[in-house]
């Protein structure tokens, strides 16, 4: 993921930090879905996560 962010102009250190945060959040969302089964809530949170990453890329 860091490489994809870097390709979109995100500086190296920021790309690594954002990819670490995003990958961790995604893993947490997967675990949340597996334990709760609440697909709608988890997908809404995933949409928010994607919007945040888009904002960070745009800001870079």
Number of helices: 3
Helix-strand string: HHH
Distance between the termini: 15 Å
Helix content: over 70%
Radius of gyration: 13 Å
Mean pLDDT: 96
Quaternary structure state of the chains depicted: single chain
Q: Give me the secondary-structure category.
A: mainly alpha
Main sheet characteristics: none
Shape annotation: elongated
Number of extended strands: 0
Fraction in beta strands: under 5%
Uncertain spans, ≥5 residues at pLDDT below 50?
Answer: none
What does this structure look like?
Helix content is 87%, strand content 0%. The protein has helices spanning 2-7, 12-36, 39-59. The mean pLDDT is 96. It has 60 residues and is mainly α. The protein is elongated.
Using brief descriptors, characterize the structure shown.
single chain, 60 residues, mainly alpha, 3 helices
Give the arrangement of secondary structure elements.
Blueprint (H helix, E strand, L loop, with lengths): L1 H6 L4 H25 L2 H21 L1
Helix pairs in contact: 2-3
